[in-house]
Amino acid sequence: MRVSLKWLKELVDIDLSVEALCDRLDMTGTKVEAVRVLGEAFEGVVVGQVLTREQHPDADKLSYCSVDVGDGTPRKIVCGASNFAAGDKVPVALVGATLPNGMTIKRAKLRGLESEGMLCSATELGVGSDASGLLILPVDAPVGMPYAQYAGVGDTVIQLEVTPNRPDCLSMTGVAREVGAVTGKQAREPRFTVSEAGGSRADELVSITIEDAAMCPRYTARVIRNVKIGPSPDWLAERVTAAGARPINNVVDITNYVMFELGQPLHAFDLSTIAVQDGRAAIIVRPARPGERLQTLDGQDRVLTEDTLVIADPSGPVALAGVMGGAATEVADGTTDILLEAAVFDRASVSKTSRRLGLISEASLRFERGVDPELAARASDRAAALLAEFAGGEVAAGIVDERPEKARAMRLTLRVETMNAFLGIALKPQEVMDILGALGLFAEPAEGGLIVTVPTFRPDLVREVDLYEEVVRVWGMERVPSTLPGGRERVGTLTPFQKHRDRIGAALRCAGLNEHIGLQFADPTDMVRLGWSLGPDEVPVDLLNPMSEEQAQMRWTLTAGLLRTVSYNQRRGVADVHLYELGNVFWTSPGRKLPKERMTVAGVLAGAWDKAAWNVAASHLGFFDGKGVIETLMEEIDVSRWKVRAAEHPWLQPGRSADVIVAGDVVGWIGEIAPATLDAYEVTGPVTMFELNVKMLSKAIATKIRYQDLPRYPAATLDIALIVDASVTEERVREAITKAGGTLLESVRLFDVYQDSAGAAERRLPSGKKSLAFSLTYRAADRTLTDEEVKPVHERLVRKVCTAVDASMRS
Amino acid sequence: MGIVDELQALQSEALNAVGAANDLEALEAVRIEYLGKKGSLTRVLRGLGSLSAEERPAVGKVSNEVRGALEAGLEARRVMLADAALASRLVAEEIDVTLPGVHRYPGKRHVINQVVDEIVQVFLGLGYEIAEGPEVELDYYNFTALNHPPEHPARAATDTFYVRDLSGESAAVEGESDVLLRTHTSPVQVHVMEREQPPIYVLAPGKVYRRDVADPSHLPQFTQIEGLVVDEGITFGDLKGTLEHFVRELFGPDRRVRLRPHFFPFTEPSAEVDISCGMCDGKGCRSCGGEGWLEVLGSGMVDPNVFGYVGIDPERYSGFAFGMGAERIAALKYGVPDLRLFVDGDMRFLRQF
Fold first, then answer.
1. Is ipTM beyond 0.85?
2. Which of A45-49, A615-619, B30-34, B227-231 is predicted most confidently?
3. What pLDDT, in 10s, does the model give residues B192-221?
4. Are the beta carbons of B109 and A484 separated by less than 8 Å?
5. How far, in Å, CA of B275 to CA of B255, rounded?
6. Which of A507, A660, A698, B84 has its CB 3.0 to 4.6 Å from that of A633, i.e. a possible disulfide?
7. Hey, which CATH number is domain A716-809, 3.30.70.380, 3.40.50.1820, 3.30.9.100, 3.30.70.360?
8. Which residues of chain B are within 8 Å of residue A610 when distances are taken between CB atoms?
9. A771 near A765, Cβ under 8 Å?
10. Which residues in chain B are contacts of A613 at CB distance < 8 A?
11. Does B136 share its domain with B269?
């Protein structure tokens, strides 16, 4: 809502500075979004006098003028208007001026002649609707005076953010009432009288039929005859402009003016275009019929649906109720007789229609917030009075007021003690009554509290608690003493799952991964690019109205998003990427309403931990760095029963991919991204990734950890190197060792893997074999082991392992 | 030459040898040469047995003196040589301490989650529990039970993401859906109040979605943190005190807080919460757009209609709720100019915090 301060001051006394007024409005719930000083827009515009006017030698329609602007240096200005002569006084925009429409005046050549400024029309200055020629000023206008000072247009426009619960503040009178209430002043209503002419009464000229009172609780019509369409007087055009509308003609401007002043949207029909029934122009308010069409004021041909409320005459729809008029019944230059509509329409209906058709107007905005049902007749009278005065109209006697149900004022009880307890303050009943009274409510003491009568312009006040808000916002939220709740039975604690999730993140950071939070949308083509498949009967979650085709689904994996992030980094020259993301993935299945959400964690490694340093070589991250991250993770979160098992997935490079298994269940996968997948996401490899199910990990986290005695006796360490088939896994050999080790074997550590490289000249192992070297630690808890004791144990272990995995000792 | 003379000659010869030993190894060789099992002095001493009883005491005394002098000389030289050896080793081992160290690279918590963690800590301290809810919600939880009228504009498909409903319900078949991506964390309030009886003290952080094109000040997905308290005797002053405590914990004790009346469908009275600008302390500067205040929270007393949906008696209980955007707070706290940086995943950004 744009509020002209000049206009507002006519409706309420203001002795605060603009800044103080804005602060007060801010702190009472009407936020000031912007303050604009209108005079600023006229900077560089002065009163000038045309000294000479000559025909431009090379352009029929241009004149070449010399203009006195009061500084002794007449300006040479080329002008396209024709309604002036030498000696006339006009507004002159000097070089450097910026006009309200944003145009900046520059020195320019027009058809070969240089022009040092511009002579202005009313439209160019935004002070009127007459664009036909220059704004000719009275002869007594002082040459050289700034135009703003001369015209007294130094207004200030305050732009208010009106919350949806306050339709009353979408009018000047409502804002004046609010300003009065929060500054301790009494607002004034505009005064006017309608003089009605003789001749036919309005109800002899117009009939109104409302088919559904719920959709249209009130419809009034007045008739104004013999209007003369023309430009509005300057004050009217200025106010309408200040409020944010474009001046059009006196009739349209007056309907807008009254809407801004009182809050009642009005519509003027050309009476002669409304079809007549039984001798009267017949207005019918009804839902559109299927297939009906209407060309609206903006020239669009619209097909109507049954849930659109229309104003119709017997021949068909003439307007979209509360949203926009029809082109055929529009007030035009030749219009003489007007049917003036002031009505109330259902909020939801207007909202739906305007949004569906994309027609959001000042009128629809007010209807969907709620227009005071008591206002229609008064607003109609106000507009009729103005039409009589400024459009020469004759107002037909009476108003047709079709109103199936009368609105009833709401009466509420306000328990002052309860209110004080709820707000944490201690107001006396009289203070409460004063605040409510200033807001235009009527409060009187009664048994158990105050009885408050709510006027119809405050449809938001329907419950006792709504009144509490009125009291506390006007009294001042800043005055409410601050306290902390004193409730008992409160402990601030995290759930075990929340703690586990935090530990998983902390462990991954400890392992070197940085946390990433990505958008949780997926590209439907990700499924193909990854070669991913969901479980049987599982489908991705489709968005019905995505922002783009690339974000048309909810993600079912973190992998695609992380690959894009790697690509994003690589394209910016960042080659070393170590990220993890912990968040939900989504999927659904036929028959389901809500999708499933699964908390998942994924990590990605590309490049190196860091560039090579003077004392450390760069390590190129690969599968075992990723596996190392998982090892760190499992150790940090106390998951002991886990392993990986070679497994293939389409997005992973065969032979470098595995499932991660915890307590016998697959909880996720790890591997290097397959070359084709890297290409699909424009990523340079190698890239190692893993993705794990957080809930399953959480379940495996040990809740109890038992202390184990530290060893008190020394250990005996023996190394063995075993030659096995290249296809035998380290895991198999290690398990064989562990199994054969008996109680004395404390730990097994692989310290070397050797295999002849393919083209090696010197072959150190039989073909198809590899060597695995382990360091075995033997220890007894209760004594120092002697060589004699360890030797047979170790020899037996070697024999058993050799048999179990078909190995031989490497000498 | 008498044996005494012989001993004295040996002493001076040995001490010369000690003095000539230039390292610990040479010194040890000298020790062995004179004092070892087969050493010169040892050999002389072994010959004492053949002396007469008269000669023996005097010679014995001299030989002990010689042995003592030799041992003392050896020790003194050993200490000297050891000191010298240490000194030269220290010189040899000197390093340039300004060379870079061997660096470990633990990862960073995302700055948004750092903010969330910090806020969570404040409210855990105030006795709140952390509540969570689904990101894909029903219209009922996101709007209806939060007192949004059916025609509320936030429900429009231009503002809210809708999700295909596969339930086969009639509305779904007609192409309409009441399944959506939650637009705020407030539906968690409803779930908690349906599930639990007061007293309720919960904080609900989570991701939320709005149909905004990503630009410096908008993201289609961001992080909200919702708070809800329902108990007997909760007042508007409690809301104010709680938020003031929170703001000072998060932004520092010097920041001022103001509540501005506002409108939210699910609270009454409602207030927006501003904090004084940290750059100008409320005077108005470029950073706060000249206002002196920065809006960080929405809040209010739980609307009785919301209590109605979840079956809590508003005559017995009252409550407050508040919500804030973690991205906005992080942007304010760290001066991040473009919200998209939070979701881009640029390593250079992530490692700054």
1. yes
2. B227-231
3. 999 999 999 999 999 999 999 999 999 999
4. no
5. 6
6. A507
7. 3.30.70.380
8. 103, 105
9. yes
10. 100, 102-103
11. yes
